[in-house]
Design brief:
Elements: H1 2-13, E1 21-25, H2 30-41, H3 43-46, E2 49-56, H4 62-78, E3 83-87, H5 90-97, H6 101-120, E4 124-126, H7 131-144, H8 148-151, E5 157-160, E6 163-166, H9 174-183, H10 200-212, H11 219-248, E7 249-252, E8 255-259, H12 260-264, H13 268-283, H14 291-302, E9 306-310, E10 314-319, E11 322-327, E12 338-341, E13 345-349, E14 354-361, E15 376-380, E16 388-391, E17 398-399, E18 408-409, H15 410-416, H16 421-424, E19 429-432, E20 435-439, E21 443-444, E22 457-464
Parallel strand pairs: 1-2, 1-4, 2-3, 4-6
Antiparallel strand pairs: 5-6, 7-8, 8-11, 9-10, 10-11, 12-16, 13-14, 14-22, 15-22, 16-19, 17-18, 19-20, 20-21
């Protein structure tokens, strides 16, 4: 029954292709052990090349984890499969990064498995999640207030950094796994971390699920069925969200921006779906994002200004009529550039995807310093003492904005102009030596303003390359 269920799942969801190289994550517990034997049984049918991957998270005493490793080594030898092993101090990483133990373990586990896949040339990583895990996941996300996307539970197949994560046991129950192993006379390891109450999943598995079974003996089946129904509904909603997202959101400088006015005109369901998509686009996933976080963002929309932090080092900032979704430390991720701009002549700045042009003109166009964002400016050429360069923001930058008698820190200028932090490192600057003479598209320096006695005028403009 178990093997039949696994084969049906593999075929139904297209989990395997002939000639696949697969990294199999094996902890030594019942689920991953059954997964390994099931895939080994399918090896000849699909011409599979299997690699066993075992990670020691260093949660427990060295003696316990050593027994796990020795068990997995014996499995790999018995099946004549290559083994990849690594030890990572997850508790230390969790403390250093500020992540929960569960999130830190998940992050490092995927990092290890993706590296193993790259090293072996595998396009797929197999994990041993079962239908019981599916039910527990739906309940856990329901408790956290997840949206429709989260309530779909664990997908049988998904793409991660160019590699497919597959779950051949996701439609099999844990009791069938144990019956299969018993029939094979295989005694798997029992991972003590599955009993640790500090993990939310364990409390749900051993306490809450047991309690709910008193009200509905088939609660696991009901939750798993709900996950499937949520998945169908999500397909419809995600299509609508995708179309609406393009109308009010965009990506720039490693962040995602959302127009608040346009967003507010959307129905509540679409509006919240767009917020979730913005978080996912900036952060990479919606893991640990719940109802309260969406409510906090909606409250931020109504505030004059401010910012909120989300799990996983993500941040949402309100700047004027825009929400900016970014990751901590990404404000300065735009590449540092410096390109000389010949006078007259042109220069392409590939990092910013812009082309600049400088040429002498007989008279200036629209009055400078009008406050409008524009891609052209007129300068007193005789006030420029040296070659011109295009570069990006550097710490300590300052200039004297047109019409002002005092110098101003560029950081303060950006703040006054309500330029989102995530976009500041992408703003091109026209400089002469160390002097900023134009914050492109925003403000000219008073040092190069055109006066009544100006004899030579330089026009500098830029456009998309």
């Amino acid at each position: 029954m178990f093997i039949s269920s696994v084969k049906d799942t593999v075929k139904r969801h297209g989990l395997l292709d002939r000639g696949d190289t697969v990294v199999v994550s094996v902890s030594g517990g019942p689920d991953s052990t059954a997964l390994l034997f099931a895939l080994d049984g399918l090896k000849s049918d699909y011409g599979l090349k299997l690699h066993v991957a075992h990670l020691d998270h260093m949660f427990r005493a060295p003696g316990d984890t050593l027994k796990d490793r020795e068990y997995v080594i014996r499995l790999a030898r018995k099946l004549q499969l290559p083994l990849i092993f690594e030890r990572i101090d997850v508790p230390a990483y969790a403390k250093e990064s500020g992540l929960s133990l569960e999130e830190a373990a998940r992050e490092k586990r995927y990092e290890f498995l993706l590296k193993a896949a790259r090293d072996t040339g595998a396009k797929k990583i197999a994990l041993g999640h079962t239908l019981d895990d599916q039910a527990e996941t739906v309940l856990m996300r329901l408790i956290r207030g997840s949206g429709l996307g989260g309530l779909r539970g664990i997908p049988p197949k998904r793409r991660l950094d160019g590699t497919f994560i597959i779950r051949p046991l996701i439609e099999s129950w844990r009791k069938d796994v144990e019956s299969y192993l018993a029939g094979m006379k295989i005694t798997a390891r029992r991972d003590a971390t599955n009993l640790m109450q500090k993990f939310l999943r364990n409390r749900i598995r051993h306490e809450l699920m047991v309690l709910l079974e008193k009200y509905n003996p088939n609660i696991k089946e009901a939750l798993a069925r709900s996950a499937q129904n949520f998945s169908y509904d999500y397909e419809v909603l995600s299509g609508a969200v995708g179309k609406s997202f393009g109308k009010c959101a965009g990506s720039k400088g490693g962040s995602v921006t959302v127009d608040i006015k346009k967003l507010k005109r959307m129905p509540a369901g679409l509006r919240r779906g767009i917020l979730r998509k913005a978080i996912e686009s900036a952060r990479g996933s919606l893991r640990d994002i719940d109802h309260s976080h969406i409510e906090d963002i909606e409250a931020l929309m109504a505030a004059a200004k401010g910012a909120i932090d989300l799990p996983g080092r993500a941040r949402v900032t309100k700047s004027g009529n825009t929400l900016v979704f970014s990751m901590a430390g990404r404000e300065q991720t735009a590449p540092r550039v410096s390109r000389e701009l010949p006078v007259p002549g042109s220069a392409v700045v590939p990092e910013l995807k812009l082309r600049f042009e400088a040429k002498r003109v007989k008279s200036r166009g629209a009055p400078a310093g009008s406050g409008r964002s524009k891609a052209a400016e007129y300068l007193d050429l005789d006030s420029i003492k040296g070659p011109l360069h295009i570069r990006t923001w550097e710490k300590g930058d300052r200039f004297r904005p047109l019409g002002m008698s005092k110098w101003k820190k560029l950081q303060d200028f950006f703040t006054d102009r309500k330029v989102p932090r995530a976009e500041r490192a992408s703003v091109p600057l026209l400089v002469c030596g160390k002097d900023i003479i134009w914050v492109c598209g925003m403000r000219l320096s008073d040092e190069v303003r055109i006066l009544p006695g100006t004899k030579r005028i330089l026009k500098v403009s830029y456009r998309k390359a």
